[in-house]
Amino acid sequence: MSELKPFRPTPDHRRLFYNADEAFAYVKEIYDTNAGYLRENFNEFTRGKVTEGRITANYPYIAITTVHAEKVDSRLSFGFVQGAGTFRISLTRPDIFEEYYKTQFALLLRNHKQPLEVGVAQERMPVHFAFAEGMHLEEGLTPEIVQQIRNHFDMPNLADMDDSIVNGTFGTFSDGARPLALFTAPRVDYSLHRLRHYTGTNPAHFQKFVIFTNYQFYMDEFVRMAQSILSKTDNPEELAYRKHYLSLMEPGGRITHNANLAIKGPEIAPHEIQSGARMPQMPAYHLVREGNNGVTVVNIGIGPSNAKNISDHIAVLRPHAWMMLGHCAGLHDTQRLGDYVLAHAYVRDDNVLNRDLPQWVPVPALAEMQKAMEQAVAAITGKTGGYDVKSVMRTGTVVTVDNRNWEITGHHKLMERFSKSRAIALDMESATIAANGFRFRVPYGTLLCVSDKPLHGEIKLPGMANKFYKDQVDQHLKIGMLAMELLREQGVENLHSRKLRSFCESAFQ
Predict the structure, then answer these.
(1) Could you give the maximum distance between any two Cα atoms of the chain, in Å?
(2) Which residues of 416-436 are buried (b: 16+ CB within 10 A; e: fewer)?
(3) Strand, helix or coil at 507?
(4) Cβ contacts of residue 392 below 8 Å, gap of 6+?
(5) Which of 7, 249, 345, 360 could form a disulfide with 286 if both were Cys (CB 3.0 to 4.6 A apart)?
(6) What is the mean pLDDT of residues 482-504?
(7) pLDDT at 464
(8) Cβ–Cβ < 8 Å for 112, 38
(9) CATH class name, domain 196-494
(10) What tens digit of pLDDT does each residue of 176-225 get?
(11) What is the C-alpha to C-alpha distance for residues 51 and 69, in angstroms, rounded to an integer?
């Protein structure tokens, strides 16, 4: 067999930049060179070429060193480091994060007037992460060759992928530098690959405004709504609204372009199209706008474990907001089927985040999210707002549980618990989505729809449930879509609340 000679594909040439675009260009150069080197050598390896040494490559990093604490515009919750010292983070996938990286770089330069340092990070790039989503390294390889991969290439290492920075338990890197962002490059890459697996879509197609739901009815209605938005129209008012959306991206590589635009939305690479593919576990649909400022809807399925799983991964994409639209059990007899519940507090009986975010940590309601959802309810239901909206919506505490059969756990204990917490609704996902939004510094909100009232004898029955879903899904989804548009119009600066940031926070949003 021929022998491959391992080498360091990009020398550790650290460079200083006072320009965000130039810093990003060097980050991209390092990443593309090193990832390409791994891909090339792995392809040679699959053809029988081996080496006695290891084939390794590293991620790029960005760093800034400050000599004293700067006085910055504290109205913005991100874009500056805390105090003096060196702050650093490894970076990945410049093709996905170009706009995000450039924005964060520019804020650091503006706020600190110090150069950005770019170089080759200590973290090695696992060979799996050097390949684009959807490519299977083991495909067509014998078990013997698969077993040899770890002998020649770096594999994903869970020690490099934890959430210690996010959770506030991370100290400093080995050289004393502090983290500049919430996620290291390996942690980001891990989630990008899991997103493709769970949602059946390319992570690059995710939009900045995310709606979570747990019913396929909502997904079907979203597709219908999106296709209507993208259809041809000669109405000037309709065109003014529709022209902002570029395309609809669906699992399996299906795409619908805006018939009103000569310029099309993002395309699907031929290898990404999966003819006759099975529906993924948590299908995601993306109504695309310029700059990924459209809406993504994900069917997360049932339960807090699913809710934590998908939000753990979407968080690395740094969305501007996420919202839970689902059904709930109404706990007050005065509630009616079809009424809305706007959560302003949560009882966290989901038990999946207790280690990462203890239950004693409050998860506050965010004013920006609450106002947008209430305004959307008023607009879509035809209410005038204020007191009038209370006829179709209640604001209060939502209980999230991990037991689907909570109804039969003991009536007296349930009544006592709900009374003490002032709870008005119960579900299995909302508190998890909100708590993970708090943990990951992603603005969050919950708007539920009452589908049954078990405490008052109104349980879900097949005929009643089908009629309820048919009547309410369209209106509920319209409310969620309008709320996202209202949030977008506020601007990112207003949306990313300082309530989500700690006193010792990383600089990146």
Answers:
(1) 79
(2) eebeebebbbbbbbbbbbbbb
(3) coil
(4) 339, 340, 377, 381, 383
(5) 249
(6) 88
(7) 57
(8) no
(9) alpha beta
(10) 999 999 999 999 999 999 999 999 999 999 999 999 999 889 999 999 99
(11) 49
**Contact between residue 248 and residue 288 where contact means Cβ atoms under 8 Å apart:** yes
Tokens 């020649």 belong to 152
> What distance in Å separates the CA atoms of residue 229 and residue 222, rounded to the nearest whole number?
10
CB 57 within 8 A of CB 120: no
User: What are 19's two structure tokens?
Assistant: 């320009």
Residue 338 DSSP one-character state: T
Please report where in the chains the tokens 């890459």 appear, as a residue. Answer: 189
Q: What is the pLDDT of residue 1?
A: 38
* Interatomic CA distance for residues 307 and 323, integer angstroms: 12
Checking if the pLDDT of 344 tops 50, the result is yes
User: DSSP labels for 5-18?
Assistant: ----SS----EEES
pLDDT at 449 over 70: yes
Half-sphere exposure in the Cβ direction for 421 (13 Å, CA): 24
* pLDDT value for 321: 97
At 253 the pLDDT is 83
Out of 3.30.1730.10, 1.10.510.10, 3.60.140.10, 3.30.70.20, the CATH code matching 15-183 is: 3.30.1730.10
Joined together, the tokens standing for residue 461 give 């029955």
Residues in CB range of 298: below 8 A, 6 or more apart: 199, 210, 211, 212, 213, 282, 283, 284, 285, 310, 314
Residue 82 reports pLDDT greater than 70:
yes
Question: pLDDT tens-digit profile of 144-183?
Answer: 777 888 888 989 888 888 899 999 999 899 899 999 999 9
Distance, CA of 346 to CA of 289 (rounded, Å): 32
CB 67 within 8 A of CB 39: no
Backbone angles phi, psi at 450, to 5 degrees: -70, 120
HEC states along 273-315? Answer: CCCCCCCCCCCEEEEEEHHHCCEEEEECCCCHHHHHHHHHHHH
Residues 226 and 222: their CA atoms lie apart, in Å, by: 6
Distances (CA, A) of 66 to 26, 82, 111: 21, 9, 11
What are 267's two structure tokens? Answer: 């395309």
Please state, as a whole number, how many other Cβ atoms lie within 10 Å of the Cβ of residue 37.
20
Please choose, from the candidates 327, 304, 300, the residue with its C-alpha nearest in 3D space to the C-alpha of residue 426: 327
CA 167 remoteness from chain centre: 17
Domain boundaries, the chain: 15-183, 196-494
Which two tokens mark 28? 């991209």
Least confident of 79-83, 222-226, 267-271: 267-271
The residue-averaged pLDDT of 289-302 equals 96
Reported as a pLDDT band with limits 50, 70 and 90, residue 454 is confident
Report, as an integer, the average pLDDT of 484-497.
89
- The length of the chain in residues reads 509
Contact predicate 501/441, CB 8 Å: yes
